Amino acid sequence: MRIGVVGTGYVGLVSGTCFAEFGDDVTCLDTDITKIERLRKGDIPIYEPGLEDLVAKQVKAGRLSFTTDIKEALDGADAVFIAVGTPPKKDGGAEDGHADLKYVYQAARDIAQNIKKYTVIVTKSTVPVGTAREVEKIIRETNPDAEFDVCSNPEFLREGAAINDFMHPDRVVVGTESPRAQKLMKRLYRPLYINQTPIVFVAPETSELIKYASNAFLATKITFINEIADLCEKTGANVQDVARAMGMDGRIGSKFLHAGPGYGGSCFPKDTLALAQTGQKLGAPQTIVEQVVQVNAQRQKEMAQRIIDACGGDITGQTIGILGVAFKPNTDDVRDAPSLVVIPALQEAGAHIIAHDPEAMEEAAKHVSNVTWTDDPYAVTLDVDCLVIMTEWNEFRALQLDRIKKSMKTPILVDLRNIYNLEEMKDHGFRYVSIGRPLIDNLKASLSSVESVA
């Protein structure tokens, strides 16, 4: 099949490359000339494990190409995917939660002017309910003679595991009421269908809502376990044990029950806001989701105070080491990452920040200033008053604790991802603060010992 993809961001680039891996002829379009030139040279603008090699493989095979010419991208295309950004709208400089659809609608107009035969136009971007119908209306108004159908086909790709998620999805959701479009989409996803991946055909509005509902539910699970973690700290319970036992219940499941500093990234913050706004607009308030948004925003702010408290309540003039600034491991994405809230708050409280992330330092440096960046995680620990694990990269899971303790000015470790064992931290003599688990305070014990000798 011949496929055009409008937009070479995260969703468009991954989807286009994976369709090429299926054997389709794919052309990815973007108006950003610099980005297209980089892609043609094999320079991938995002970090996603395995993507660079897969792009190179498909370009070499002649199944994947990049262009800024929409006529070239749509020439002979059986399906065209709209995969442009839908950021939150700005109202007086602040985000109001509504998805900004100007790029989607402009893509629809451009496509309408350039399709020459029957084409299925697919909204792959995350869009509010009713967008597919509006795209169809725009295309019909722009080109009344066009022969086409519009589908909604939301993506469910996790950053850091996107290629596997595309190749081995839990399900494929397609929103269309056209038998002709259904037939084409079945053919397009046939490599998955023969592996018994469920393909769910629904109305476009249902498809669009499935995406938002799914992300909002996962965000709710994260927020729920974070509040349970707070209760665990008050009662002496261990949130990891609570979550493990909860996850054994088939009705609940174990995924997204990991306590931490709050969710971030390109999807959950944007999609929960958009769903809440849609509910308000249509007179069906999503009160649970609204609370999730508020609680998560507050939690990120509270993490900075947690670090300050671990250091005795005053960090003026102290140096805080930060391990990880991406919102999750295996990505360079820092959009709505907790680190972008925590770091400025610590700086405002008087601390100097030294930080390391395997992939996200360049992106983070665009959002936070006056940070000392280092390529070595152990350099972050040198003479610091406190070390904070912000992102659970694998590189941080087996650090040499004795080496870190000797390097630090004060052995205070705040683990916002619970990647270390409580007994292990006790044995190594740290003041160890984690999420929803008992405090390990060897520092206090050692100070008391010194005072008693004196």
Task: Itemize the secondary structure elements and their pairings.
Layout: E1 2-6, H1 10-21, E2 25-29, H2 33-40, H3 51-61, E3 64-67, H4 70-74, E4 79-82, E5 88-91, E6 94-99, H5 102-112, E7 119-123, H6 131-142, E8 148-152, H7 162-167, E9 172-175, H8 179-188, H9 190-193, E10 199-202, H10 204-235, H11 239-247, H12 268-282, H13 287-310, E11 319-323, H14 339-348, E12 352-356, H15 361-364, E13 371-373, E14 386-389, H16 401-407, E15 412-415, H17 422-428, E16 431-433, E17 440-441, H18 442-453
Parallel strand pairs: 1-2, 1-4, 2-3, 4-7, 7-8, 9-10, 11-12, 11-14, 12-13, 14-15, 15-16
Antiparallel strand pairs: 5-6, 16-17
Helix pairs in contact: 1-3, 5-6, 10-12, 10-13, 12-13, 13-14
Describe the structure.
- This protein is an alpha/beta fold and 454 residues long.
- It has 2 domains: 2-202, Rossmann fold (3-Layer(aba) Sandwich); 204-454, 3-Layer(aba) Sandwich (Rossmann fold).
- The chain is built from 18 helices and 17 strands.
- A 7-stranded mixed beta sheet has the order 13-12-11-14-15-16-17, with helices on both faces. Strands 3-2-1-4-7-8 form a 6-stranded parallel beta sheet, with helices on both faces. The chain has a two-stranded antiparallel ribbon with strand order 5-6.
- Helix 6 (131-142) links the parallel strand 7 and strand 8.
- Helix 13 (287-310) crosses helix 14 (339-348).
- The radius of gyration is 24 Å and the shape is elongated.
- The chain starts with a strand and ends with a helix.
- Residues 447-454 have low confidence and may be disordered.
